[in-house]
Amino acid sequence: MRGLEARLCLAHYRVSAAVGLAEDAADQLAFAVEVARIDGYYDADHGVTDMPAFFRDEPMLQDAWKVGQMNYRAVMEMDDCWHCEHSGNPCPSHG
Ligand SMILES: [Zn+2]
After folding, report:
1. DSSP 3-state of 39
2. Residue 33 covered by a domain
């Protein structure tokens, strides 16, 4: 199910934080946000623009998912840029 892994990591973060496992909580929060970002990238790559249902009440996951969607669009834009393609580096517009 789309978004489930990130949502479970966020739940893990909250439980760890509640019982005082600060380091585990920080790791799980970072992981939840990264998984949500990757979900956004993957969804964009597959033409999916609707937010996963598991993110609807979680602004952090929503924001990360949107970043993933934007990252995908930026990569596609650079792929279509003649200057980026021929220099091997991002051009001034994309760098
Ligand atoms: Zn470019």
Report:
1. helix
2. yes
